[in-house]
Amino acid sequence: MNSLPGESEAPKRLQQKAVGALKSIRDAEETRRGAIYKLTLDVDDVPVAPLSIMRSHESALRHMGMARKSQLMSQGMKNSAMQEMP
Questions:
Q1: Does residue 43 sit within a domain?
Q2: pTM higher than 0.70, yes or no?
């Protein structure tokens, strides 16, 4: 059987790339698990109050955003009503 010089090397290179990709995936998964474990340890040291304050602050910002959107919409309606009046 006649084969080209680089033909038998291609599957080997492909296999090496696949093995390298799997190792990278495994390393990334280990890093992710380590980060989750570290966060779990860090969260155990954090008092509950700052988390609740952050949540209420986030909620307040969300409500402010909705109020601002409502204000802009009503202002837009007033402006369009003013333009329609002769």
A1: yes
A2: no
